[in-house]
Amino acid sequence: MRPRDPTPSAERPRRSDARRNRDQLLTAAVRALTKDPQASLESIARAAGVGIGTLYRHFPTREALVEAAWRTEVRRLCETAPGLLATHRPDLALARFLDRLIDDLLTKHGMLEAMRAVVVAGPTRLNPSLAMFAAAVAPIIEAGKADGVLRSDVTVDDFMTIKAAVTLARPENARRLAALLVDGLRHGARAPSPRGESPRGPGRGPRPRGTRGRTR
What 8-state DSSP symbol labels residue 150? Predict the structure, then answer.
């Protein structure tokens, strides 16, 4: 026999409504803060189709809402990392992950400014997002070292330093800076040739991982 759900039937719709309201608030917050980092909570609640009281029940402070909205975007980005590794060589996957981060920084600059204001008031609020980034790139870095396309001494902390530098760079310089820094992580500190050949010459490239469908 299937175990009975101990949750009263009247409670389940309320929880479903609460989850839906929370999701709508986060979606509205990302859109509003992207356009205006000073967007009011009242305008965000209206855009989500809920009352200000509902907003405060989910997010007691402005900082809590901004932090949750930021983590939602970070999670969305980090969820692309496995797919990048599955279809690209690890060093290229790392570069393309950074490229997507830069896309977000350029298109959602207001969201970044709003989160920066939150971090100034409480630096530890950024820790969950940093942990998500670290967990996302760790498999890429390990695969890159195993394949011999990244330096053997590269660490996740190295990537986090690069991410911080790119985040703080002027928008027009971010992509070039990211490319230069990722090149420094590559084996021999050299980028692959445009055709994907080993920088060490024919017949001396990194050993294959046996994964089919990966960009070379």
Answer: B
Q: Which residues contact 90 (CB under 8 A, 6 or more apart)?
A: 140, 141, 143, 144, 147, 149, 150
The two structure tokens encoding residue 44: 């965000």
- Expressed in angstroms, the distance from the first to the final Cα of the chain is 52
Chain center to CA of 118: 18
Identity at 133, one-letter amino acid code? F
Amino acid at 172: E
Q: Mean pLDDT for the chain?
A: 85
- Return the CA Rg of the chain: 21
Pairwise CA distance, residues 150 & 156, whole Å: 12
Q: How many Cβ atoms sit within 10 Å of the Cβ of residue 120? A: 9
Beta bridge partners of 142: none
Residue with the two structure tokens 């990966």? 214
CA distance 117 to 130: 17
On whether the pTM is more than 0.90, the answer is: no
Domains and CATH numbers, the chain: 11-60 (1.10.10.60), 63-189 (1.10.357.10)
- Flag whether pLDDT at 145 surpasses 60: yes
- In this structure, what is the dihedral angle of CA atoms 163, 167, 172, 173, given to the nearest 10 degrees? -40
**For 27-85, how does the pLDDT look when each residue is reduced to its tens digit (9 = 90+)?**
999 999 999 999 999 999 999 999 999 999 999 999 999 999 999 999 999 999 999 99
Helix (H, G, I), strand (E, B) or coil at 88: strand
Instruction: Give helix 11-35 / helix 109-121 axis angle, nearest 10°.
Output: 110
